[in-house]
Please model this.
Amino acid sequence: MMKCFFAFCFISLQILCGLNLFAQQAERAFSKTLLLMGSKFEITAVSADEGLAWRAIESAIGEIQQIEKSISSWDPHSQTSKVNRFAGISAVKVDSALFYLIYRSKKISQLTGGAFDISFASIDKLWQFDGSMQKLPDSMQVAASVAKINWQHIQLQADSLSVFLVEKGMRIGFGAIGKGYAAMRAKALMQSMGITSGLVNAGGDLIAWGHRPQGTPWSIGIADPENPAQIFAQLDIHDQAVVTSGTYEKFVEFGGKRYAHIIDPRTGWPVQELKSLTIICPDAELADALATAVFVLGPEEGMRLINQLKGISCLMVTSQNDILQSQGLQLKTRNPKPETRNPKPETQNPKPKTQNP
Ligand code: ADP
Ligand code: MG
Model:
């Protein structure tokens, strides 16, 4: 009888060990989708340890909520709002994370000749994309607000971690970099907890690391600007960010013309030359900021900049539906030219025939 008991225990132990071994090999993807920073976020952890995966996801959510509290320019209690309130009055001490986010933002302004500028927010009250705008802003008002946009007037004091906006009425806002930044911070935290593969999709700005459960790469679809519910290009990535900005996201229309949410800091008016732009590079924060900057620079200047930057690629769809890719990028795309997908009369196509194969 005793022998039998031992044999049973031995077999049970073997089964348990076997199960444990199996569990260690069988990685699964655990995901949570929720609203953060006003956008739909999806956070995915790949792990054989379900408990660890959920702890990492919850910690990432906590981290993003903290970031939102600090960088939101709509929350009157945020550090950013305090910096804005004290514009032209005095410097404001902030925490080091916000200080260095502003520092990096200024570096990107320098790199892009001011096309990306967090002080664009001095004008953002004039452009509302929530349906409340009844008419185009007055060009005098636009000119007065543009005068306040100048990243060089954001003064940083590293020893005291303080920020001073030199002019009264100046404001900063992180609409073009905040989600990429939050995605990077969430990824770093999850990695530090032992999540070696995962994905953070911050409202379409995403970073993926490692691989999918069966070791296959992450497969990312890029939305068709003509029909954002459809994918028009797809790419496989391991450790990359893929960030898309598009005029189909937030816009208003007056007189049949679309005015979208990316503003040229030099003019105060929304940019018109591109419909969609995707940046692919290892850093989601940089990709987010560059997506906005290249939109402002336009196809020629923007492409020239991207082709000079090592490890950064881009895919553009112009307002004429031409698809342009940076050197070395050869994504297969569905042709978004409206006349090919959905025949329209010749007169509605303003592009010369020669450029339109
Ligand atoms: P989203 O990913 O939410 O569509 P983007 O990354 O495309 O946002 O950036 C657009 C947002 O960035 C705008 O809603 C605005 O808040 C801000 N923004 C607009 N123009 C600029 C600019 N030239 N420089 C910096 N930020 C800008
Ligand atoms: Mg951006």
The mean pLDDT is 88. Residues 73-165 form a domain with the T-fold fold (CATH 1.10.3980.10). The chain has eight helices and 15 strands.
